[in-house]
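Help! Submission page says 'invalid entity' but I think these are all valid:
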Amino acid sequence: MSRTPTGEVDERALRALVPQVLAGMLRRGEDFDAAEDALQEALIEALRVWAEHPPGDPRAWLATVATRRLVDARRSEAARHRREEVTHAEPPPSPIEEGDDTLFLLFCCCHPDLAPASQVALTLRAVGGLTTREIAEAFFVPEATMAQRISRAKRTLRGRRLDRPGDLAVVLRVLYLIYTTGHAGRVDLAGEAIRLAGRLTLATEEPEARGLLALMLLNHARLPARLDAAGRIVTLDRQDRGRWDTREIAEGVRVLQSALARGRPGRYQIQAAIAALHDDAASAEETDWVQILAWYDELIALTDDPAQQDPAAVLARAVAVGHVLGAAAALRETDRLRDVLGDRHRWHAVRGHLHELDGDLPAAGAAYAEAARLATDIAERDHLIRQAVRARAAPSCRHRGDRPQRETPPERGF
Amino acid sequence: MPKYLLLKRYRGGPEPHHPFPPMDQWAPEDVEAHMAFLRNVSRMLEERGEYVGVHALTPARTWVRYGGPDAAPVTTDGPHPETSDLVAGWFMIDVESHARAVEIAAYVSSEPGPGGEPLYEWIDVREIMSGPPADDDPA
């Protein structure tokens, strides 16, 4: 496993060993911060020497080298501090069984005391085995900044008990965050999130973990069709469905079915079911909006006051309402969200879509233009400008002269 | 080699060469041509080894100042948001000379607008201060 035919180290296989080795060290009572640093050094060493000298047992090699680094570090520390730190009591043996390494480590990295950005960074390093440089590149920050974020996170964890079961909901949220931020950078964070979620499903029976994995697979399958050759966003209804990854769709559906079979649907399973219905349509016209709306009804039933507690779900549901009950009903649904989402580009973009569905192209153009003004992503901003221009240039646009002149600054594009 | 920011603005700067409507009121093909031109600027700079970075800013602005001890920060989006200068984004370049920075800025300013006509947009060229000199100053 340590060698690929080209003689290069198989980094993916190497990184897959990280949770097992790190968890082993933590169960021995090692400090998370020091153990994780030592393991990172061992990984860098492995990348350096394995191509020439592949080990017989890669996992044992990593554990040995990491432990040696840990001992080295402790020795120099002890020399400095005259052993002050070494007298702390041995932590009680961990009740967690071998084999739950991934789950155990995810609970550490997604500790509720950490901010989301820190949970993400620590998860990618300690569970995903990415280097600090790779994580920094993925988030477009200097390596020193990311190194500091990671060491501050580890300092926060120092002294916290890490042997108790953590909050799985936080873990799922962190993995989904990694997935959703993972489409832009050079490092394939979306793929990494899927890999981590896959490992999580081996460690827990929780159907929502499977639901999350299914959701990511079913959305990721459409990624090849999401942008055209010039990098422009292609909306779902215009995508070339032949470019969707059918293998990923089949896998996502299989995982989703195994989750739903447990009879405890949650928000990830429901969103995955919606994604599956989109994936299942041979053309945009064949989309089963009635079923999609039914799933959205379940989704918003999860909260007591969906407009306040889960406005994004209510907004997404409005699109389905538009396709099932008509645009007028859907626009009324979005009206309820004006106070909560009125300053967000997504709210205006959905209304643009609904006005278009309604045949009111001037209103669609104005809504898309406002959405473009509020967008915070260049690809999305450019897409919304195109939507506005398309709506305004359409032949049935007969109210050209009545368009209200807005106070917004001219969009020169950038 | 000196580094420069080529700043583009939503508003402010010298009197525009000629007025033009907001981009969402352009013809679709003009929008495409404009966006393709700007993509091409980045590619051209990269190929010539002059590219450092490109960033766009959203038009939302908040002015903030220290509120004093035990007071919340003071914020405003005024006083005259419609007349004040508002940066839209920039190219950062690393070039041989000021003359080359001016040349690139003029090229950016020739970006196509409605009807394919150049926008003649004013570009603000600002040199970035460098680090300390390697040699001692004889003065």
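Support: the input was valid. A stray whitespace character was the problem, and the output above is from the cleaned input. Chain B touches chain A at residues 8, 10-11, 20-28, 31-32, 34-36, 38-39, 54, 56, 58-60, 82, 86, 88-89, 119, 121 (CB under 8 Å).
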